[in-house]
Write a structure and sequence with these properties.
By secondary structure, the chain is an alpha/beta fold. It is built from 14 helices and 12 strands. One of its GO terms (biological process) is tyrosine biosynthetic process.
């Protein structure tokens, strides 16, 4: 074992064996991150092929019958989460059991109805993922800087809570305590309804003329990116969190109806104001979203034209580094048939002039600056 790995293992908050049930995207990603910290990771999965892939890619070892884990992480589809939690609590009486399902109230309700002792169970949910699933798409860094909700209750011991929050911290995430109901209402708004909205909008493209779709720019790609998600998983998630999702959808439907009414007669008194207020309220909502490092910060965007040749983007970043300009965010847009792309680079306002002057002096073409 290398000196670096020994140092990292000593710093890990989670000790002993961590059993991960479910070797898909989240389970295998947790395995990769913990293995890198020197933690003994035991993987189990109902799919032998998925398990083999996760082990082959280095997410952990195969679970053994004599394992005595300190922590069990349940990372299975929502429709079997409660069943697996119940089984793991019974099978490993010395372990704390958590899960990473995206709905928290339904498993707790089901387990309580069965009379399961939940003293050693703590629900949790990392707000992280990728459009692709499975062990082959797993990455150790997908949790870095992301919120990780931990749902404690009056039965939760301080030591057990510290173990689950330690898991989140070891993976680079930020633990946030919520009740299951608070969590489910929150993800309905910021995750589940956005998925439906993206899917509904992208669904309008199915019968659209090819000529219309050739006009699609980065805005529509950003808006519909998550529409590529797996239907099978989302049917389960939305079904398990139906009531909070319906509340948000009904409010959104009322907003859409109001805008449609205004646009049916755009010259009617108050119609243009209704549309403007809708856009302005959206501005205000975006301003409330946490930015880099969880802060509400406003950046300015410099749009740089980048030739579509190898190494150009790397050169751009290198020269921004020489100018001591930190890139807060980046978005790339390619126009069909064009021999260049547009790099939209977000920087703090105080760095805008330094970036523009320095890049232009080095031969870069600045397309625009947006604040």
């Amino acid at each position: 074992m290398s000196d670096t790995l020994i140092t990292r293992a000593r710093a890990a908050r989670v000790r002993g064996t961590v059993r991960i049930v479910g070797a898909g995207l989240l389970g295998a990603s947790i395995g990769h991150a913990l293995t890198a910290e020197g933690v003994d990771v035991a993987l189990a999965d109902s799919s032998p092929a998925q398990l083999r892939l996760a082990v082959d890619y280095g997410a952990g070892r195969r679970a053994r019958d004599d394992d005595d884990p300190t922590l069990v992480v349940v990372a299975v589809p929502p429709d079997v989460t409660a069943d697996v939690i119940e089984r793991e609590l019974a099978s490993f009486p010395n372990a704390v059991v958590t899960d990473v399902a995206s709905v928290k109230s339904e498993p707790v309700r089901a387990l309580r109805e069965r009379g399961v002792d939940l003293a050693r169970y703590i629900g949790s949910h990392p707000l992280a993922g990728r459009e692709r699933g499975g062990a082959i798409a797993a990455r150790a860094d997908i949790f870095v800087g992301r919120p990780w909700v931990v749902c404690r209750d009056e039965e939760t011991s301080a030591a057990d809570l510290a173990l689950v929050e330690g898991l989140a911290l070891d993976l680079g995430a930020t633990p946030i305590e919520m009740t299951p109901d608070e969590h489910d209402r929150a993800v309905a708004l910021v995750s589940h309804v956005p998925q439906l909205v993206a899917s509904l909008l992208a669904g309008r493209f199915v019968d659209a003329p090819d000529g219309s779709l050739r006009l699609a720019g980065q805005g529509v790609r950003d808006t519909t990116r998550i529409a590529a998600s797996a239907p099978e998983l989302w049917v389960q998630i939305l079904g398990a969190n139906a009531e909070p999702v319906v509340d948000v959808l009904e409010a959104l439907a009322a907003d859409l109806s109001s805008v449609a009414d205004a646009l049916r007669a755009p010259d009617a008194p108050g119609a243009r104001r209704a549309v403007a207020d809708t856009i302005r309220r959206g501005n205000d909502g975006v301003e409330r979203l946490p930015g880099k490092h969880g802060q509400n910060r406003r950046f300015e965007t410099i749009v740089v034209m980048v030739d579509d040749t190898a190494g150009q983007l790397g050169r751009l970043f290198g020269e921004l580094g020489e100018l001591e300009v930190n890139v807060e965010d980046l978005r790339l847009e390619h126009s069909p048939g064009a021999q260049f792309g547009l790099a939209e680079i977000s920087v703090v306002p105080s760095a805008v002039r330094r970036a523009i002057d320095g890049l232009e002096a080095r031969g870069w073409r600045i397309a625009s600056v947006n604040d």
